[in-house]
Amino acid sequence: MSVPPFAATGQEPPAVAVAPGLAITVLALLLSLQPVTTDLYLPALPSLTRSLDAPVASAQLTLSALLLAFGCSQLVWGPLSDRFGRRPVLLAGLSIYTLASVASVLAPSMQWLIGWRVAQGAAMGAVVMCARAIVRDLYTPALGARAMSRALSGLGIAASLCAPVGGLLTEWLGWRAALSALTAYGVATLAVVALGLPETLARRNPHALRPATLARTWATVLRHRTFWAYSLLTTASYGGLFTFLAASSFVFIEALGLSRPQYGAVLLSTALAYLVGTVLCRQLLARLGVRRTVAVAGAVSLLGGTLMAAAAFAGWHAPLALLLPMCVFMVAHGIHQPCGQSGAVGPFPQAAGVASALNGFMMMLVAFAVGRWVGARLDGTVWPLVYGVWACSAALALTAWTLVQRHGEPHAPA
User: Fold this and answer.
1) What is d(CA 258, CA 35) in angstroms, rounded to the nearest whole number?
2) 409: alpha, beta or left, given left = phi > 0 and alpha = psi -120 to 50?
3) What is the chain's Cα-based Rg?
4) Upper half-sphere CA count for residue 135 (Cβ side, 13 Å)
5) End-to-end CA distance of the chain
6) Cα separation of 145 and 317, whole Å?
7) Model's pTM, two decimal places?
8) Can you give 26-90 as a three-state secondary structure string?
9) Which H/E stretch holds residue 381?
10) Is 162 strand, coil or helix?
């Protein structure tokens, strides 16, 4: 497919000078806001459900509604960042996130908690969307996949700490203490961005918010087959992860009888598997390039989902029977996300905000649907988790082996 006019190499704005170490550190902090917000409180989810005397379906909304707001808000934040720059949008998003985090800690009922979690999600949309756009501001598409994998390795480290910290805080101080940790992370990230990150967008688009311009930009992005190939890849991969996030606390704690600290160890294992995947991603990219790397990861995804289903059908409903296949899936997730997120915005150097926003919106729309599906089917068994992960692994393999191979940018090994 032809490259859109604003993506031509000769028209790309000059790169903004940001020290590589600073860029990766800030990107890791910004991208990690999402797992910190979703993972750290998961060990507290059954506890807060009982404390606020709410049904399980309402408790699921604290996660699925947050992610729906996260996805939808990016459609607004993306054009704003293309018009005014990444830095002001980041500062606004982190400030709102911090205030909403404080309010969540003080929420007197499940309805109030859901409302403030929605505000958190909307603010988080600014942060994560800008992080993905900054990758395109600073790197070419081929180098962007490797830079994204480094930043997502930092995310993996943060995610690996979230579950144990959340479990311990909930065990010692209660579920509100777990939510308080989100406030601390938001304040720290806001300080780093305010004091250390310059504006990365070399050339602002003064017409980005005009309805006609915005409509043309959206249409150009949505017509691009490379965008769809990589966006469907990231969406299927995140769908499998979100199935696990939405169901795992109830499956492992309520159905399989693990304690909260033990469940924290389960989440730690999957986060470490994801971290391994991001490191493996860099090795595969250097040897195979993007498309073949994604094809290998598609096979790994399908293996994880199929092993989980086989164990469940064989009647092995035990923690390890679910955890080990999920770790296999998470290794592949650590490969799909750097390749998919950088690939989706790669063709659009001067509309990276819009492309990042549309990619994020797709992922979170599917996550919301998955959350509602899981919430309605949690029945004290392992099957909602098993069916969801298995279906997403099959969709991942199909996308990796067909659409990405046909329409993904054939970047040479970086």
Assistant:
1) 22
2) beta
3) 20
4) 35
5) 23
6) 37
7) 0.76
8) HHHHHHHHHHHHHHCCHHHHHHHHHHCCCCHHHHHHHHHHHHHHHHHHHHHHHHHHHHHCHHHHH
9) none
10) helix
* Alpha-carbon span 131 to 353, nearest angstrom: 9
Measured CA to CA, the distance from residue 320 to residue 307 in angstroms comes to 12
- What's the CA gap between 113 and 94, in Å, rounded? 19
Q: Is residue 226 a contact partner of residue 32, using CB atoms and an 8 Å limit?
A: no
pLDDT tens-digit profile of 1-37? 333 333 333 345 445 667 777 888 889 999 989 889 9
Q: What is the dihedral of CA 268, 270, 274, 280, to 10 degrees?
A: 100
> Rounded CA gap, 306 and 384, in Å?
14
User: Residue 85 and residue 157: Cα distance in Å, rounded?
Assistant: 29
Number of Cα atoms under 13 Å in the Cβ half of residue 324: 10
Which two three-digit tokens encode residue 154? 């930092």
pLDDT (tens digit per residue) in 233-259: 999 999 999 899 888 888 998 888 888
d(CA 371, CA 367): 6
d(CA 114, CA 112): 5
H or E segment to which residue 191 belongs? helix 175-196
Confidence of residue 222 (pLDDT cuts 50, 70, 90): very high
